[in-house]
């Protein structure tokens, strides 16, 4: 997670111009970060379905978990579009800002999978 943000902050400092790195592209990282944080709010028992009652909070946790997964994977898809559609296909130079946006979201998603595996391994 931290490596993804470190790459993006370094790129934003090195390419401050909006012509090189459009500042709207930072939204992908923010959305994936919100999804990453929301994942940590969901207790593991709600995802597993260990609780016998189908309370509203359990359904809410499952919806929150689904929303966090969708936001993370959508951010990876949008960042790949930014890399290929905006930078590579059009021949925009430098290409590194597009690669940085993509790597940021991939590393945040890797952190998501890693945290999720730790949650399942511990219990």
TrEMBL record:
Subcellular location as annotated: Membrane
UniProt entry keywords in alphabetical sequence: Membrane, Transmembrane, Transmembrane helix
This protein's record includes keyword Membrane: yes
Topology relative to the membrane: Multi-pass membrane protein
Organism: Helobdella robusta (Californian leech)
Annotated GO CC locations: membrane
GO BP terms: late endosome to vacuole transport via multivesicular body sorting pathway
Gene: 20215372
Keyword Transmembrane among UniProt keywords: yes
Main location as per UniProt: membrane
Chain ranges passing through the membrane: 23-42, 63-89, 95-116
UniProt superkingdom: Eukaryota
Sequence similarity: Belongs to the UPF0220 family.
Origin organism lineage: Eukaryota, Metazoa, Spiralia, Lophotrochozoa, Annelida
The protein's name in its UniProt record: Transmembrane protein 50A
